[in-house]
Amino acid sequence: MTMMIDSILYKIRSVILGHAVADALGVPVEFSSRAELDTAPVTKMEGFGTYNMPAGSWSDDTSMTLCALDSIGKGYIDHVEIMENFCRWFYTNEYTPTGKCFDIGGACMQAIEKYKAFGLPPHMCGGEGEHSCGNGSLMRILPFALFCEYGEYSGNWLDIIHLGSSLTHRHERCKVGCGIYSIIIRKLLCRPDQDSVYAGLKRASSVYEGNSELDKYKRIFEPSFADLPVDEIKSSGYVVDTLEAALWCLLTADSYKECVLKAVNLGEDTDTVAAVAGGLAGALYGLDAIPTEWLDTLIKREYIEELCEKFCAALCN
Ligand SMILES: [Mg+2]
Description:
The protein has 14 helices and no strands. By secondary structure, it is mainly α. It has a single domain (2-316), classed as ADP-ribosylation/Crystallin J1 (ADP-ribosylglycohydrolase fold). Magnesium ion is lined by residues 59-61, 103, 271-272.
């Protein structure tokens, strides 16, 4: 039993730290163009740049992930508490690396403000318009996927993912993006190899068969997707671009390091594309594959590890 819990904790740490480290790698160059990064690519954990933050600073992607991880670390999902944690982050700087909330997407901010001002039910806070199809729920969905893999619940697990997305992103396209990502993450947690990515994609295409949003994601289901040249991969904050870019980096790399550096150096939404890819690469290659000097530079690594331990203990009890 202890061995099983140790193995689950290792996987949780791999995914969460894989995500956080990649986020921190991308933070200093967020919004840099691909041409700029082609000239001076990121190769290590750097500081300052876009937000003038020290090396190892993670951003909203990780902060919002920790808000959910902390709450679900009680062993069940409480949307009100997760939303309250988002408020504690946004209004009072909790769940931040240095005591400062320095990065937030428009849709997330609107959802939090709507919750605070009108007291809407949490799952009604996310925007549902076409303009609200950013990657802000995809970048923080991992604790929900981990709960579905290791926790106890009744009902359809994908409803948990879709509701989790809805807290900030209620458009069907965002829910489907989070669903596809979570299906692949769960396949990788069960069997960490590249074949599991394809098994996940196959499963996702059958789960969402008939869903009109699936068409938006059609490129990732094509057998030649990994052969697309980099010029055809966009790395914007649009949920479809981000999921495509993260998967393309995973499928065209041979290590955690190669995958997340590739993601950062695509440019534009560097931290989120890398964080989404980093969660996948953490699941595929494991914590031991993350360069030690990157983990050592990550601010408040021990705090993140403690949240992972609390989460694992609650789910495995
Ligand atoms: Mg960010």
